[in-house]
Amino acid sequence: DTDLDGIPDAIDPNPTVNAVVADPDGNNNLPASLATGLTGRWDCETLTSFGGTSHGFVDLSGNDHPLKHAALGLSLDTAGMISKGVKFDADGDYMSAPGSLVSGLSSFSVSMWVKLNQGSIQNKPDNIHTSLFSFNTALDTYPEFTLSLYKSAAGSPTQKISFVRSIGTSLSVAWAGELPQSSWIDDGRWRHIALVKNGNNFRLFVDGVKIKDINYTLGAFTSTANGYLCFGKTVPVAGVIGTTLKGSMERLRFCSS
């Protein structure tokens, strides 16, 4: 996405010119080329109250998968990608969507814009990383998968973005893609991240560049009434498993196929 307008170069009629000005607040309909397959879409423009006990963002795909935060502690980043975004500036900040969004799918994609506080990704402490998003069948337990970030060692010239699975009560790095120091994600700039799962094939992209492409045996995900897809933390409760993200997110997309 050369011009950083949210439209991949392959389908952008003007890939070097950011011409996306018709939808500055993110509330209008997407063009058909970007709406195909969307089952979750959150542009993080306006915080909505859900019954007074939680707040978050409505699902603009029309599929009723709201992103919620139970502690009413989220705030908006007014310097978003094009317009506003959601800010994660406290340890308990996260957003979670219903597990039904993922349940039964063997192929899907998740994408988002993220702006991480400069230098916020630290060296790996005991396999616990800074989580971008994760999925699990129930609250307060280790997740089926997590996409996370860490620096491998003090003074290391690389940063790693990893796909993590749970083995018992431990998080295990299934694979990791390395980002050179000049491309670290925690640089205070908006970066685009996408994970595409097609059966047992996984592809990871950062700013439209493929970081990793592997085959990993993992079938369709299951879910229960308490299942969740969580952004910004490994599990959606304060003070447990995982390191919370420090920064902002916006224009999150979930596509099934």
Describe this structure in words.
The structure is a single chain. With 257 residues, the protein is mainly β. Helix content is 2%, strand content 42%. Strands 1, 5, 6, 8, 13, 14, 15 and 17 form an 8-stranded antiparallel beta sheet that branches. It has a 6-stranded antiparallel beta sheet with strand order 7-16-9-10-11-12, with no helix packed on it. Strand 10 and strand 11 form a beta hairpin. The longest helix has 4 residues. The radius of gyration is 17 Å and the shape is globular. The model has no long low-confidence stretch (mean pLDDT 79).
What is the SS-derived class? Answer: mainly beta
Instruction: Estimate percent helicity.
Output: under 10%
In total, the number of strands is: 17
Q: What is the average of the pLDDT values?
A: 79
Topology:
Layout: H1 32-35, E1 38-42, E2 48-50, E3 54-57, E4 67-69, E5 75-77, E6 85-88, E7 95-98, E8 107-116, E9 130-136, E10 145-151, E11 158-167, E12 170-180, E13 190-198, E14 201-206, E15 209-215, E16 228-231, E17 247-256
Antiparallel strand pairs: 1-17, 2-3, 3-4, 5-6, 6-17, 7-16, 8-13, 8-17, 9-10, 9-16, 10-11, 11-12, 13-14, 14-15
